[in-house]
# Entry
Amino acid sequence: MEPTTRIEQWEFVHRRLARAKQLIEAGLLETAQGEHGPVYLCRSQTDPTTIYVVQRESCPCPDRFHIDGRKLCKHILARLIVEEQIPLAKIGQEPWPRHQKNGHTRGKERP
Ligand SMILES: [Zn+2]
# Structure
């Protein structure tokens, strides 16, 4: 199923982000040293005998979801979380720490 509205599209992303966190918590994403840098391997949740080699913008899993022309599955998001060293505790939590400037919190709007 493809999202038909912008909001639905973001809802799809949100769900995948939550699942990406679960993948990492379950220890299904592993990093190995490849010839050209780290390689991200993710074991399928539905079939433990299947392992996906997760690239930054592509993944061989059956998820067809794309956003702005780029594939975005839970495996790619899980790779991003690990690569960018985002603490798992932050994902799905409110609020993210604000950027501080001169001791004041910028902006009044909640994210
Ligand atoms: Zn994938």
The longest strand covers residues 37-43. The beta strands are 29-34, 37-43, 51-54, 66-67, 70-71, 100-101, 104-105.
